[in-house]
Structures are given as C-alpha cells and as structure tokens.
Amino acid sequence: MTDLSAQEKYKPNVIAYYTGGGGTVIDSFPIEKISHLIYSFGHLKGDSMNIHAAKDSALIAKMVSLKKRNPDLKVMMAMGGWSACPNCSEVFSRKNGRKTFAKTTRELLDFFHADGIDIDWEYPAVVGYPGHLYTENDKHNFTLLIKQLRKTLGKKAEISFAAGGTKNCIDSCFEWRKVIPLVNRVNLMSYDLVGGYATTSGHHTPLYSNNQQELSADYAIKAMEAYGVPKSKIALGAAFYARVFANTTDANNGLYQPTRFLKGVSFKNYKTELTEEKGYTYYWDEQAMAPYYYNQSSKSLVTFDDPKSITLKTKYVIDHKLNGIMFWELTDDAYSDGLLGVIHKTIQQ
Known about the structure:
By secondary structure, the chain is α/β, with parallel strands linked by helices.
C-alpha cells in the first residue's frame, strides 16, 4: 500500500527557460502546465549577479505575477548562458567573489520574490565559448560556489545548474558527489549535441544513441548515474527548436555527412519553414528515437524535437522517475497546440 501511494505522489517537473525575446507575450502561454519558469539570463557585473535592463526587471516581476494563475509555479533566475560567462572562472575562483555573488543573488531573489537561481556556466574546467577562460580548478570552485549559494540562500531556495550532455562535460566539469546533495536538480542540456561548430551532421537532441552517434539523452543520464547522480535530481533536456545544417553530400539522407551549421528554427515556425513544398522530407530514426528532415535540392539536414519525440522523452522521464523534463525555450513554442501541451498531455495520461 505504501508503494502505491508513493507512486501516486510522483509528478515530474516541467521546467521552462524563458528569454522574453521577440515581443512574445508570456500571458499567451499555458503557464498552468509549467512547474518552473526560468528567466534567462542575468549576468555577472563585477562579482555581482546583475539584471542589466529595466525591461528585464519588469519581465521577472511579470513572471512572478503568474503565480496568481499557477500558485505552484516556481520562478527562477538563470545566470550565464553560452556566450555570457567570460569572467565566471576568475570571479568564482575567489572566496570574496563567490560571497558577493551569493549575497547579490539573495538580494535579487528577495526583491523580486523569486524562488531560486540556476547557474549556466558553460563550462567549468572545459572549453566553452571561444576565448572564455577555463582552468582545471573551476571544477572544485564550482562546488564552492554552490556551497556558498546554499549557505547564503538557505534551505528553501531552489538551486539548479545546467550541465552539458557531452562526455567531456560529464566527466570533467563537476564534482558530482559533492555538489549534487546541495542542489534541487541538474538541467541536462541533452540538445545541441551536434552544435554550431560541428563539421559532421547528426541528431542534435536524440533520446537514444545509435550506431553512428554515441551522445544522447539516455547516454548522458547513464553517465551521470555512474558518477552517483540520482535520477530524482536529473531533468532531461528537450529542444523547442530545430538546427539546420548544410551538407556537402546528399548520402544517407543527410545524416553523418560533412556539414556546416546554417541556422535555428523555432517550433512555432516548422509548419511554414520546413514544408514539403519547400523540399523537406520527414524521416524518423528508430534507433535514436529522433526525427529529421532532409532537403534534397538544398542538401540541408534539419534536426529537432517534435510531438512524437517529445512524447517519448516525457515517457522516458516518467518511466525512469527523473526529476522532470526541461526545455529551451518557451518563446520557441506555439501559443496553442505546442510542445508544452504535448508534455502536459503525456504526464496526464
């Protein structure tokens, strides 16, 4: 009887990053279907956590006000992002840098009545954005940063961090056993696995590995488990956008060919941009559980998540009792009949 009641209580988190870009009105999204809404991004200014523009402050206040619609909603602020952590290594190497950051984070959370911080340092101890400083000491300094945040913010605050889904990051970025007890979850970036600097095409956000591509959500989760990360603290990452790659050959319907990255396309624009009329043919990789388009005339491959792959990812989260499903990002979704709706429907089933 105890087991049954424990099973009934499990409900995966649904974690949405939100940039607020493009004039999108957040009121138009089904906020009731989200458990965590993460403002993206605050940045370092000196040693302090900083929200740099009045419009961003207004956006965070607006996000917090959505608790009227969804009383269970947690609103968090993310610090960093792909190109926005040039000073993270230096600032977080110093005790006073970490203390100032934690103190100013607390001040902002208190000011906005927000619930927590998400650290998007891409990446501690391994190469990230070209030219950004990184050292081996980042790995331990990241632990010290999270310790300082937990001490300063207290037990009730939500603390999470984003982790790259690559072998390099999982093996080298974090002291998993030390840092995991201090955080609520890890947001696993199991997307961009074939990214902007890729020279060979492939799936950017597959659920499973296949014969040609080792990296996948399942691969990363198993690798994290091997380091002692409990499933209950892993949020699987989904992509609400496609990546388009130009190939030099049309072999294998575009997969695993010499390539260069062209652009991203939001899910809300798939139906107008990635059409049969424009030459795109849909394919499904049964091994990777991932969709892709190939355009024979332009020799372009499109890799993405869609309702089918999102359903399978959500089921994976439920079957493995992960912490939840996380996605980048809400402004890429359609206001209605979007991927967030697919996640919600799958959880309700």
